[in-house]
Amino acid sequence: MSTKPLVAVLIVAAATLSACEKSTETYPVTGEQCGPNDPVKTLDAEDCYIPQAGV
Fold it and tell me: Which positions make up the signal peptide (predicted)?
């Protein structure tokens, strides 16, 4: 099995994803303006906890 196609896909994906953020003043997906009162500024790593199914 050749890994060349996989490597090419990963390089293209990395280049595409790194190009998403054009400015730090807007959110990359929505394009909405960032502000000093954005609720995401108070997020912690603990806020992103996703419980596992069946636990």
Answer: 1-19
